[in-house]
């Protein structure tokens, strides 16, 4: 290869190298044209969308005709149309019912608390419902702020709140008062665009509370079984369990080794002898021991203690309350304890606390319940 040819080859190689490098660099340079200083700015995070508030509920479609029975059996409230039970509780000191409507982000709640502090007026009630008390009631929310409080009509304490749950901003109002020696607090939470509807709901809930007078002095921390067909109720400790039940049919409740059966059947009892015969014909091996005429919350009837001996020789003791209902039916609560041989009408009831379950049996012919 002569000198001229070598020189020409070198030139062609250089040109091709420059062309290749340019094809890589020029697009990078051109892509930055027009960016100016913004190219050097720190990238900004994409903002999260703000939660969309649902439209306020239509109050013309809401009534409080449906009755919700609290698990304790001690009170009912009117359940606003579209709100369903979400949580309730009963402790020795407080009853709480909560109903929820997730479509409109609203909760209605009622608390009935023992008045251990012996509060007697709304001013002392306002002092009692301080930040500590309120904070415990808002534990399920992200945050809360009290925005104002005032006394309404000399008897009701009204407190307003801004509330946060997640990224949703909500509003709430609580009204508290003293009644029958207990502290009542009705509260409604709604979306922040539903202030008018909040007032409507709060008024409806607060006005709809009804205590069941037959259990005026009953313990808070018991549950209740109510048959909405046969219209009888019995209360029992929370560690007991309903093992078999259907409305209009016998229900079985068990706990602490005792077995309680409540039922209703056609028939009537006119005398103690009738009550004795009914008891001894209820089941083979039953022998009546003692009989008492009773009148429980206006329902007349009899209480019978009995001894049960099974075919294999095991002995149990029991007691039955038989009440005559206004429906001309006999309503029966029958509790028995295995491995016990005692006349349960002659013992000290304090030694057999499970007898208090039998004593809680009531006929409630006027109680109408839609939700439990």
Describe the structure.
This protein has 372 residues and is α+β, with helices and mostly antiparallel strands. It folds into 2 domains: 59-215, Protein Transport Mog1p, Chain A (3-Layer(aba) Sandwich), CATH 3.40.1000; 222-363, Protein Transport Mog1p, Chain A. It has helices spanning 3-31, 122-128, 131-137, 195-208, 272-282, 355-359, and strands at residues 66-69, 75-79, 84-90, 94-101, 106-114, 143-152, 156-165, 168-179, 182-191, 210-211, 222-227, 232-237, 241-244, 251-255, 258-266, 286-296, 299-309, 315-324, 329-338, 362-363. A 7-stranded antiparallel sheet has the order 3-4-5-9-8-7-6, sandwiched between helices. A 7-stranded antiparallel sheet has the order 13-14-15-19-18-17-16. Strands 1-2-10 form a 3-stranded antiparallel sheet. The termini are far apart.
Supply the key terms.
single chain, alpha+beta, Protein Transport Mog1p, Chain A, 2 domains, seven-stranded antiparallel sheet, 20 strands, disordered N terminus
CATH topology name of the largest domain, in short, is Protein Transport Mog1p, Chain A
CATH architecture of the largest domain: 3-Layer(aba) Sandwich
Which CATH C-level class of the largest domain is it? Answer: Alpha Beta
Tell me how many strands there are. 20
Overall mean pLDDT stands at: 89
User: What is the end-to-end distance?
Assistant: 105 Å
Which word captures the global form?
A: elongated
